[in-house]
Write a structure and sequence with these properties.
heterodimer; B: alpha/beta; eight-stranded mixed sheet
Chain lengths: ~475, ~1000
């Protein structure tokens, strides 16, 4: 039996589930009617989204001046939000690709939603580099298109250009990987659908999946290949995003520690966001049997590790700022000046949210508490937003020449756009939760007999 | 010439009356068009069908075409020269020499004219020190295109024409003459021989005429003192280039003191040459630009300035006049000894507006036999008489004046008792205001005889004995205006134009052997100085006693001053000047009281930064005598003497102004008895004022390498490493200068031109002429108070101003708090009486530019001549370049600044847009811009030389800032030309690059400041 799993391992699927039960449970949200709660949540998200669209239109119509930026702090909430969303978008691929390669079966309960979250988050992230441009209508200049503008070509030295490639590659690979996984599940929905319209739609979406052995073989192979392709992307995307800062010469940005530190931070915040979403979803969509405490605890363990890496990076930054003896370094992000300067509140929010609170996860009780995991996941994402805000705004506000020191304060438009992306994200996620199979049921079925609670109990009774 | 050739179509045409030719000429088309056949074929026609699709296509097409045809694009008028004027070549600028003399600012200038439009003021290098252009002179070009200018003469606020105005006025004037009523001509200082002559003629014609000169920024005391001592009502001239020791008591001679224009000669002695430089001690109340440049500055209250002057006099001459002790006494003792030692190389200056104080100062300079003090070629740029204007108001109120003609002055705004003056003015039988705008005085006068701007006018000047200048029109009058002198001539019944009168006067009494054409070409003329003044020895004891007697100490003494930007408020409607940050406070669009931190704490006044960094401050009510100014903002000023406050004049204009430009409070209301020093009581008012301050951190934060300076002693005696250390990095296990460390292969930049700009911090006085020159040359937009407040200033060139702090790196190390929060937080606080340093910063045109590598679309890249270019069309506005710029010199177009009612400044009206430089593009919203090293100017020089087939001369390469710099602190040129001045400056021991350790390799270099601090 290839899928033998030791009985001392805790089961990954609770309850007396059969294959059919899994199909029914996963298809339930799609086939059922939306409840009131969903409609309320959707209305709020849609309102926020529309507010964001309004704010974006206003920005494009009038000018970037409607934001709170100035000639010394040229980026603030825009790029903070960009990095924050990209960071959030890291967990999905890590869960589906890296854990696939490491044969972590527990990923099967969460990978679909984690990856959906990734894609939706990358949408939000991609929005900011576009709308932050002074002349959005010329945004295509960043693409290396053959053109009639003379010998003009993009500047391959610029980390912003690397971003263009990194983000678009990441988005396309993630999207393909996600969609590949969805094929058998769409087919399941197609087969169960009674209404012809739904049947037609899911039929189209499932690309004519027939469930033949060849289909499954190809499916497995493509998954493995895509996992191999996606794995380096997990590391590369945020490495490149970090280079926006690391390759610059601004004190506080110019830091060689940034690539690994950013990647760890991204996974840290990504897992936190997965926690936030799944803890709610398992309850609302009655998926407690598939997204279990083990999943939550495992993700918390990843958070401990990545949070630890991030904390060590903080300490290193602080130490190097002081040790360098350079007053430029010593006055910047995560340094003496930041801790005591006008942005002390942002500095201490970061330390509290990202370093102190996650320490509680060292206790098993906290790690397995759903409520605490949920609260902490939100705290971590607030902390990670502040981390990016600190890096960008504190450093720019305290540049080389003290004559240019100033501060930043967001306007209504800055705030609206951020809220708008959160709204957009939830609009997408809520629609997804009602129309997509939110758990990779086909994969899950493959471990039912090895990791299902009742099968394990059966084996225990039979002393296998 | 039209051609008479005829082309034949066939031989038939050769025949005289061929019927064929006749027949053909009747036909439009040679061959028949078969319409009849086509329409006659009924069968075919009825069977052919237009399908529904075709029909829709036709309808769609015609609708689209019709609506397209109905759309009309914006009409841009571009009118070609039908008959091209001789001297105008489109695209080529003409320069005309002229002179600015508006009663406050006096300078000989060159006017750059493009296609008939004056667009830029340049200094007239032939005129020596008088050719320097200050910020206000540079900005005056925009006042020409002021949209609030009057379009024609007014009679009782209604538009009128000149002939009816002349008729009424000649009648009135003759009636007044017949009744022998007094006519007063009230002018500002004109310094114009011809104008004064015409006024004198006018006085003769109309009998009972008095000419009163009134200056808002009066030097009446100094004039009276000089008159008493030398018998001529003029101001002494000071030759600072001869000075070794300058002791100034309250004289802001780099500002508006005695008409200014001393910066060039002052800075000649401020660079150490052969181990020698001048020493400058300043004793003053407000931190003035002059005080900021001093080697030693002692803040004292205005009353103590008087005691200090008497004490200094006593210490030098050994007299024993009664006085009081002052905080400056120790320095005065040293200064007196040094002055005695310096002898004729020393000079004492005094800014106290008191005749006795001025007599004492002049006597001191006489006692020193000062070579600096030049009384034999005095200046005529101030002629105002305080007593006369005081009398005039009294006489007007008493009804003793029949008519008042007011020219070149705005007493309804600048008089402290303006309301009394206005009341009396309205009651006069005749009041005529000669004004360009509907200003306060114009609004209170019956008639406004609208005058042209000086760039549309003829005129002449004599700034200094023997130093003549001509003013010539550089554009046809834009509006229906007439010069003051022209009006006088017409009303006198003279049949000559002012131009004729001017020319005649010059030919007969000024030119001598010179020619008019040459004088007009040069703009300046060295005439004879017929004055031969001698010092009438005076007994100064009575002056000293009177001076002491008149001086009262008070808890708070108000010292009114003028800003570099606003002066007396004549050009208050000029957005460039409103937006120009004050060099000291770096605040624009406002005036405010300056108060010391100690006093502010006592009164519970504060300055603080809000969450976006912008500066806010408390407000106070000021009371001087009966006059009250309410809600005056408070700016806490390091270096302000305790017990004194400063307040800038010239703000608070409301008449003939655009709403945006009505800023600040009118401090003239507090200038009781025309004295700028007043006893004042301060009371905290409710509310918070929002400042537009561009520099929010005032100290250098221990980053001493940013603005290097040293003392004269160290400069002479210590090795360069100790005061100008070049940062070093390790390369191949060897310490080399940071400049040599390179990741890339170096481009060969020794071929062709390679431009560098050198800025000498020792001679930069912070006067901001360069800032306005850059504004004008490069079409830099004005963004208004709010945008300045939120750090969105667009100036391509800024002048950073740093104060010293009591906390330094050395002190922190001694105290064991180096690198701690305590050190940093103390460092942010400037000293109570700080040393001040100025540093002009523009794009440094780095050879390793951090901005260039990060632009994703290569919109900013390096030129072969060293400049860092901006391709505006390519820019998509990611602003990454601005973030990565360590100098923070890049400026983003946050909004559309031209043709936008939200930014209703000169780029929002057709008149104001005439000042735009056609060689520089107006940037659109969403693109980054910055200093281009005046690419358009260097390119022009190169092309001119090329077309003339010669190498470019060193002095031809100029940027707007280097050309405008009055002190020669900025030098621009080609370092590949080894003979050029700038190439030599690169080798200077004082040269350093800003933030050299970052490795940007800038093409702008600085020369460090040397302070002469020796105390012996």
């Amino acid at each position: 039996m290839s899928h033998y799993e030791a009985p001392i391992r805790e089961p990954l699927i609770f309850g007396d589930k059969s294959y059919h039960d899994i199909s029914v449970d996963v298809a339930a949200p799609v086939e059922g009617k939306a409840n009131k709660l969903w409609w309320i949540a959707f209305s709020i998200a849609l309102t926020a989204f529309l507010l964001g669209i309004g704010a974006i239109c206003y920005t494009i119509g009038v000018g970037i001046g409607v934001w709170g930026l100035n000639n010394r702090i040229n980026w603030a909430w825009d790029i903070t939000n960009f990095v924050w969303w990209v960071g959030i978008g890291h967990a999905g691929t890590l869960i589906s690709a890296v854990l696939l390669l490491f044969r972590q079966k527990w990923r099967m309960g969460i990978n679909r939603s984690a990856e959906a979250m990734t894609i939706f988050a990358v949408f939000q992230a991609g929005l900011f580099p576009i709308i932050h441009m002074g002349r959005v209508w010329n945004a295509f200049y960043v693409l290396p298109l053959p053109n009639a503008l003379g010998s003009l070509w993009v500047n391959f030295n610029s980390p912003l250009l690397w971003d263009v490639f990194a983000i678009s590659t990441y988005l396309s690979v993630s999207l393909v990987f996600w969609y590949t996984g969805l094929l058998p599940d769409f087919a399941m929905l197609r087969d169960r659908a009674v209404k012809p319209f739904q049947k037609k739609i899911y039929g189209l979406l499932s690309f004519g999946w027939s469930g033949r052995l060849k289909d499954w073989q190809r499916f497995e192979e493509v998954s493995l290949v895509l996992a191999g392709l996606a794995t380096p992307l997990v590391l590369s995307v945020h490495t490149i995003v970090s280079m926006d800062f690391a390759t610059s010469i601004i004190p506080g940005w110019h830091s060689t520690i940034f690539p690994p530190y950013f990647v760890a931070g991204a996974i840290f915040s990504g897992f936190a966001m997965v926690q936030t979403l799944l803890i709610i979803m398992r309850k609302v969509s009655h998926l407690e049997a598939y997204i279990t405490k083990i999943h939550i605890e495992n993700m918390n363990k990843v958070i401990i590790v990545t949070g630890g890496i991030v904390s060590v990076a903080y300490m290193t930054e602080f130490f190097v700022g002081w040790y360098s003896g350079s007053s430029y370094e010593d006055y910047t992000y995560l340094s003496v000046g930041a801790a005591t300067g006008p942005y002390w509140w942002a500095f201490w929010s970061l330390i509290t949210c990202n370093f102190i609170f996650p320490l509680t996860l060292w206790f098993k009780k906290a790690r397995t508490s759903l409520i605490w995991s949920f609260i902490l996941s939100i705290i971590i994402n607030i902390g990670m937003w502040f981390e990016r805000f600190d890096i960008i705004v504190i450093d720019l506000s305290r540049g080389h020449l003290p004559s240019s020191w100033t501060m930043f304060s967001p306007t209504f438009v800055d705030v609206s756009i951020f809220i708008g992306t959160i709204g957009f994200f939830f609009v997408l996620f809520l629609l997804y939760a009602r129309t997509f199979p939110v758990i990779a049921q086909a994969e899950l079925k493959s471990i039912l007999k090895s990791s299902g609670e009742n099968y394990k109990n059966l084996r225990k009774e039979n002393h296998e | 010439m039209a051609s008479n050739k005829k082309y034949w179509r066939n031989v038939e045409e050769l025949k005289a009356d061929s019927s064929l030719v006749e027949r053909l000429s009747q036909k439009e088309f040679l061959e028949e068009i078969p319409t009849d056949t086509f329409l006659g074929d009924k069968d075919n026609l009825s069977s052919s069908s237009t399908t529904r699709r075709d029909f829709l296509k036709y309808v769609g097409f015609t609708t689209a075409v019709a609506s397209l045809a109905a759309c009309q694009g914006p009409v841009l008028k571009s009118i070609p020269y039908v008959v091209k004027p001789d001297n105008i070549i489109p695209g080529v600028a003409n320069f005309y020499a002229s002179t600015m003399a508006d009663g406050t600012d006096f300078a000989h200038i060159l006017v750059k004219v493009r296609e008939g439009r004056p667009i830029k003021i340049e200094p007239n290098k032939m005129a020596g020190n008088w050719g320097s252009t200050s910020a206000r002179v540079q900005a005056s070009i925009l006042s020409l295109y002021d949209n609030n200018r009057l379009r024609g003469p007014l009679a009782e606020t209604k538009e009128t024409d000149w002939s009816s105005l002349d008729k009424t006025l000649i009648e009135s004037l003759n009636t007044l003459k017949a009744n022998n009523e007094k006519i007063v001509v009230l002018t500002g200082t004109t310094a114009s021989p011809t104008s004064n002559k015409i006024i004198a003629n006018f006085a003769q014609t109309f009998g009972n005429v008095q000419h009163i000169v009134y200056d808002a920024l009066s030097e009446s005391a100094a004039l009276d003192a000089f008159f008493e001592m030398y018998g001529e009502r003029a101001l002494p001239n000071y030759k600072f280039e001869n000075a070794e020791l300058i002791v100034s008591i309250g004289a802001d001679f780099l500002g508006d003191w005695q008409g200014g224009q001393y910066a060039a000669s002052y800075t000649k002695g401020r660079v150490p040459v052969n181990g020698k430089m001048s020493k400058h001690i300043q004793i003053e109340s407000n931190l003035s630009l002059t005080g900021a440049n001093a080697d030693k500055r002692i803040p004292v209250k205005p009353s103590e300035q008087v005691f200090a002057l008497i004490n200094l006099y006593n210490a030098i001459t050994g007299s024993n006049f009664a006085s009081n002790p002052t905080p400056a006494d120790a320095t005065i003792k040293i200064a007196a000894n040094q002055l005695k030692k310096a002898g004729s190389k020393g000079v004492v200056l005094c800014g106290i507006q008191n005749k006795d104080a001025q007599i004492l100062t002049n006597a001191l300079n006489e006692a020193l036999l000062s070579e600096v003090y030049d009384f034999n070629s005095p200046r005529f740029i101030k002629a105002g008489n305080d007593e006369a204007i005081k009398n005039l108001v009294a006489e007007m109120t008493a009804g003793k004046v029949g008519a008042l003609l007011i020219y070149n002055t705005n007493p309804s705004f600048t008089l402290p008792n303006a309301s009394a003056f206005n009341e009396a003015l309205k009651k006069l039988k005749l009041s005529v205001c000669f004004s360009m705008t509907d200003d306060e005085t114009a609004q209170n006068s019956k008639y406004v005889a609208t005058i042209p701007h000086y760039l549309e006018s003829w005129g002449d000047t004599q700034f200094q004995a023997g130093n003549f200048g001509l003013m010539q029109p550089t554009i046809n009058p834009l509006f229906n205006t007439r010069q003051f002198e022209e009006s006088l001539l017409i009303w006198m019944g003279k049949n000559t134009t002012f131009y004729q009168a001017l020319r005649e006067n010059w030919t007969t009494s000024i030119l001598g052997t010179g020619t008019w054409n040459q004088a007009l070409h040069d703009g300046v003329f060295k005439g004879s100085n017929s004055l031969d003044l001698t010092y009438n020895m005076m007994e100064v004891a009575s002056s000293a006693a009177a001076l002491l007697n008149q001086t009262k100490s008070a808890d708070f003494e108000l010292n009114l001053y003028t800003k570099i930007s606003m002066g007396d408020g004549k050009q208050a409607n000029n957005p460039w000047l409103q937006e120009l940050p004050d060099p000291i406070t770096r605040t624009s669009w406002d005036n405010y009281i300056t108060i010391s931190a100690t006093d502010a704490k006592k009164l519970g006044l504060e300055n603080f930064n809000v969450s976006n960094g912008a500066l806010n401050g408390s407000k106070v009510n000021l009371k001087v005598g009966d006059a009250v100014l309410e809600n005056v903002p408070v700016y806490i000023q390091p270096g302000q003497a305790n017990g004194s406050i400063g307040l800038a004049l010239g703000y608070g204009r409301t008449a003939g102004m655009q709403t945006e430009m009505m800023t600040g409070v009118n401090a003239f209301a507090l200038m009781q008895d025309l004295n700028p020093v007043q006893t004042v009581s301060i009371e905290k008012a409710a509310g918070i004022h929002e400042f537009a301050c561009v520099q929010l951190q005032h100290t250098i934060m221990g980053r001493d390498e940013i603005i290097k300076e040293t003392t004269l002693d160290d400069f002479i005696n210590k090795p360069k490493k100790e005061w100008n250390e070049t940062p070093e990095f390790s390369l191949n296990h060897e310490e080399v200068s940071a400049e040599r460390v390179d990741l890339w292969e170096k481009f060969d930049d020794t071929v062709g031109h390679h431009f560098n700009l050198s800025i000498d911090l020792a001679t930069c006085t912070g006067c901001a002429a360069c800032v306005v020159a850059c504004h004008a040359e490069n079409n830099v937009p004005v963004v208004g108070k709010h945008e300045i407040r939120v750090s969105r200033d667009m100036h391509w060139l800024r002048i950073d101003r740093y104060y010293t702090s009591d906390m330094t790196n050395e002190k922190a190390k001694e105290a064991g708090i180096f690198g701690t929060g305590e050190m940093f937080n103390t460092m942010t606080i400037p000293s109570e009486n700080p040393q001040v340093a100025f540093q002009p910063v523009m794009c440094q045109h780095c050879n390793h530019a951090p901005c260039e590598t990060v632009c994703p679309v290569a919109a900013t890249s390096h030129g072969r001549q060293g400049q860092n270019h901006m391709a505006y069309n390519r820019c998509i506005g990611t602003r990454y370049c601005a973030n990565n710029c360590p100098y923070k010199v890049r400026r983003f177009n946050w909004f559309k600044y031209a043709n936008n009612n939200e930014f209703d400044f000169n780029m929002n009206n057709d008149l104001g847009k005439m000042v735009l430089n056609p060689d520089v593009v107006v940037r659109s919203r969403g693109v980054m811009e910055k200093c281009s090293m005046c690419l358009q100017k260097t390119q022009l020089s190169i092309l001119t030389a090329k077309s003339e087939g010669r190498p470019v001369k060193d002095e031809e390469f100029q940027t707007a800032c280097s050309s405008a710099c009055p002190t020669g602190s900025m030098v621009f040129g080609d370092i590949n030309d080894k003979q050029s001045e700038v190439a030599k400056l690169t080798e200077d021991v004082r040269a350093f690059h800003l933030l050299a350790e970052v490795g940007t390799k800038p093409n702008v270099m600085y020369h460090l400041k040397v302070r002469n601090t020796e105390e012996s």
